[in-house]
What we know:
- The chain is 16% helix and 26% strand.
- The protein is α+β, with helices and mostly antiparallel strands.
- The longest helix has 8 residues, at 18-25.
- 7% of the residues are buried.
Amino acid sequence: MFVCSKCGERVEGDEYDALIYDEFLGQKETVAVYKSILTTAPHDPATQLVKRTCEKCGRPYMSVMRVGDAERIIYLCKCGNRVDV
């Protein structure tokens, strides 16, 4: 169920709703849940890129992901380098 934090409206989910599905599985909010997403993100053209030099390979940009409710920032490079902030 989605509950709007602004107006309080409640919307029931269905089997195609990712948030409801995640709650159904009872998964915890951890970086481990996002392991496959973090592995593929640097190679996904839809992932946001930022100007940040990779310390491992020198590439002038890295992918950035915001993970979990706290939106923890993780920078990822195609070479496999990962920087957790």
